[in-house]
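Subject: High-affinity zinc uptake system ATP-binding protein structure
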Amino acid sequence: MSLKGTRILKGINLVVENTVALLYGTNGSGKTTLIRAISGLIPYSGSIKINGKEVRSAKNLLEYSTNLPEVYFIGNTVLDTAKIVAELKGGDLREFLELVERFGLESKKVINKPFYKLSTGERSLVTLSLALFAKPRVCTLDEPLENVDPQKREKVIRVIRERVKEGIIVTHDKDLVKVFSGTPVYTMIEGELFEGIKV
């Protein structure tokens, strides 16, 4: 895959089925670019399929979800966005509010804010709540612990374990890799994918 004439991803071949795969790598290795391509946010060459449907022709896959913030710039406030997601994906808005509270945020304080007025920590937890409350069949999570207060990390990990049964979790955090021991792990280095942890 190339962006602005620069090749970012090189010969990626990955199949994730009925499991969660961890994608480990340093910042700038191409992890988020891959998730953005899977989410149909950027053009790509080759084939990316979710449940057998090519992403290019299935951007409204209701069974897929991600925590990438740009997916949720669709409402004036967090609550507006949650209502749209609930309507599109059949989620229960009460579950969204419950997740926000489980993550240690006061829902009444964050739901009426526009995204740009959330702190980085709040934004991470709100987008994760938006990604998970409708119980997607397939999910990609980009750095779900980034900017999350240490005292809230265990809550986040617990919810991810409960709700993400198939998909990809991107991280540069080796501690998260240890938490999900037994899960398939891949490392991305300069746009190339390798099985296992590579340093």
